[in-house]
Amino acid sequence: xxxxxxxxxxxxxxxxxxxxxxxxxxxxxxxxxxxxxxxxxxxxxxxxxxxxxxxxxxxxxxxxxxxxxxxxxxxxxxxxxxxxxxxxxxxxxxxxxxxxxxxxxxxxxxxxxxxxxxxxxxxxxxxxxxxxxxxxxxxxxxxxxxxxxxxxxxxxxxxxxxxxxxxxxxxxxxxxxxxxxxxxxxxxxxxxxxxxxxxxxxxxxxxxxxxxxxxxxxxxxxxxxxxxxxxxxxxxxxxxxxxxxxxxxxxxxxxxxxxxxxxxxxxxxxxxxxxxxxxxxxxxxxxxxxxxxxxxxxxxxxxxxxxxxxxxxxxxxxxxxxxxxxxxxxxxxxxxxxxxxxxxxxxxxxxxxxxxxxxxxxxxxxxxxxxxxxxxxxxxxxxxxxxxxxxxxxxxxxxxxxxxxxxxxxxxxxxxxxxxxxxxxxxxxxxxxxxxxxxxxxxxxxxxxxxxxxxxxxxxxxxxxxxxxxxxxxxxxxxxxxxxxxxxxxxxxxxxxxxxxxxxxxxxxxxxxxxxxxxxxxxxxxxxxxxxxxx
Length: 535
What we know:
Structural class: alpha+beta
Strand order of the largest sheet: 4-3-2-1-5
Helix content: 40-55%
Largest sheet: 5 strands, antiparallel
Number of helices: 23
Radius of gyration: 24 Å
Strand content: 5-15%
Distance between the termini: 36 Å
Oligomer: single chain
Number of strands: 7
Shape: globular
């Protein structure tokens, strides 16, 4: 999954085609790709993932005086748009999985639409995605594309899809399963308010006898499956739920389709399987340096996309040849022991991220926090977002943290002074403790701070958020794991596997770390091979 971070927009469609061969597995992978790429590219490129190459070449419509991000527009204004249409997968009753699309039409004729992958058997809203203000042709192309991979939709009245979504959410919450983070923060605001104005329609949830039904779809990791089963056994007891393994749904794809009938994972895996495995080490090295030569060594990401993907695949195969699986397993176990913690959703209060803030609900706080992160690279906009947040929450540790983020770390004197002041004011605040001990170890060489940094997650009373956990993992890689100063291929592979296998919601920081590791692997492989040649 992590390799998809490095894919560029022109590859989206082929990867989607390769990964969506099978009904539900394809649907959920499709959502994960869509959400993951949206965090790294503009909404224009994210929406391209669900359109054809014609729309890839089209510019996003230009609008004057648009000041809201797509996310904020959906949260604040989308209900003012009329419903254009709703569609739902025609197998939702039998499969207990509903692929729902709700579209609203702008005055310009453009479409904003949200997608909901709803599990009425047990888990509620499993995935959700959205695309903002696109031509109507893009919306129509999206439905043509998903039909090719077996998701056959039919038009449905809004009241029906509204009731399906909320019934599934309520049923899942009865058993302790929360809806997807993006639903709570963004796409639920695309729905009409859940009031008595919406006619109530009885929706059957759970299995045939009303007991919760978990359908293993082939995509959940073993750890995630165990987590769900363990949770069900804890909440309803053994024998009081259904555990179903979904069929392969071979009827959904054709061997003559553009997608092969083999289970392809992604473009890199295809290259490895079809072009690289079986080559000698010398042939792999030769191919590596054909791509990573002196003219291109400055920045491998500037390579044409097909060459960059080829280079990534070659690097991975070389690493497989050079690494020891037992050592990787040992490092993985070390990471699991040091980094595993049951973090909470950012909007759940009380928690350390929003410590000291009262009289404001968690969703609102997280919305404000995310709005700041969206504009962090623009100092003027970031300061404006901080002022808006301050007007709502008053003086709080979060405000000092956000102000600290606005300081360029290369201005060490200013940054270190601000960090020291924050730590003095809030010595028990997780983020400041983390940053302070990292600074004391890296900048001042204080070994005691390294030990304190490593022990931060050992507090049995600690309640940190996914955001803080991701921040800690990134800094752990640099301090305790020493991933950048003493490069070790086994360590990198173990860290990548841990980040991919972990069941936390995707956080931008950890995805950025994965992307960074990929670049570093290429550079380090070049260094290794050159040193080898020099003897």
